[in-house]
Amino acid sequence: MNRVIATDRNEEAVTWAQAKMGIEGPIGPCHTFSMVDESNEFVAVFIISDISHHAACLHFAARPGAYWLTPTFVNALMSFVFFLLGLSRLTAPIRSNNIRSKQVALKYGFVYEGAMRNAFDNGEDCILLGFLKEEFLNHRWFKRG
Predict the structure, then answer these.
(1) Top-level CATH class of 3-137?
(2) Model pTM?
């Protein structure tokens, strides 16, 4: 049985997610929001970085084949971002070849906002997806209270 550990084990969660994503960032302060399995091993980690007074970037990594995209987990994550952190938007920068991440974000309700050409060292583009607090408040997974 998987369980949400939210912001616990922040540094460990960042390191785990970085290894899964194959990146060195995020650079600077960030929050994590995580789920672990019955052995306390990470199943999914969201990294909230580049936080301003109203927006942040959202990155995620998940164990392949793991069941983590549940209404309870995502509702808790979005409630943390929009109510506890007080943000009004999230931006998900996703490598253009990361088809699975794009599918997951679009399935949840993120909206395509554009692309940054040649954004990575290898010349790959970065797809930008956005999600607003208003969209969360009207989302089928949002639970009030």
Answers:
(1) alpha beta
(2) 0.88
